[in-house]
Amino acid sequence: MQIKAALATKPNADLEIQTVELDEPKENEVLIKIASTGFCHTDIVGRSGATTPLPVVLGHEGAGVVQKVGANVTDVKPGDHVVLSFSYCGHCYNCTHNHQGLCENFNQLNFEGKTYDGTHRLHLDDGTPVSVFFGQSSFATYVTANVHNIVKVDQDVDLNLLGPLGCGMQTGAGTVLNYIKPTPEDAIAVFGAGAVGLAAIMAAKIAGVKHIIAINRNGNHLDLAKELGATETINNTAEDPVKAIKEIVPRGVTYAIDTTGNTGVIKSAIDSLATAGECVLLGVGGDITLDLMNDILSESKKISGVVEGDSNPQEFIPQLVKYYKQSKFPLDKLVKYYDFADINQVIADSTNGKVIKPIIKIDPELAK
Hints:
By secondary structure, this protein is an alpha/beta fold. The chain has twelve helices and 18 strands.
């Protein structure tokens, strides 16, 4: 079938809304009409061509309504409201032990551009294959996705709001609730108060953590962090974050979460830890130089990388929706809506920090 999709054809160039061909769903797939989709920093990385072959249709926080299901699909039916999340294989060690976010085939399934069965479901008019992103490519009017990507959600919640739960919100909140699992006496420092960091702060509040310290260079974001659950805030352009953290918690924090990928910030996160503390890395970053003895081993510190909040999306996303309905996870305070035609403005506003969590309305009336 013919659909409209925002196509990335050249590295870091504007996306172009074009007509492309989308295959019908196979036996383990579902056709979804997209109502809206979140925009995530990983989409900017994907536009560069560094992760996924171009041309590619990006987007990996889709929300929509089921139109058709394959012969083997029993979890959803036409008319169901769904959120689209990441791809996972379902058969590796981590997937079979309920750690789908840590799937051993994650990079292949989400970044290599082919679908779950190794084929392409998107094509240009001349037959040229188009890469799929995170198994969904939700910058489009319709999506065909494997059943592993699909999470059924309550129809009494605004579907246009829920797409970001598929990645960014799940990553931040899941890291706290699924991976760290803090106790109330712990202290958590969250470096970066963007969407992922604010989701982590909301989750830490749900967990009842005593000290939830938000570190960011944007004062407005820190005000929102305080509103969402941060017990203390630090502007790291105005003061040394390590010194400021240890004035709040003299022994250091139990956990530091980095959402920035900035090597200097990561070093500060490690330095802010208490003995035996753990630094959890969530942001896309590069090389970093550490003195393993002085920075890590001498105080038994740990560094971990966590993907997608160590989540089983079919379990965790409905839990986040429940928290939202209970006013414990007010993600609506983070978002700004855009029309599909303004997708390149979304990229600009997201890059320069004008918006925390953009949501692109593809067919907003669909959710009603």
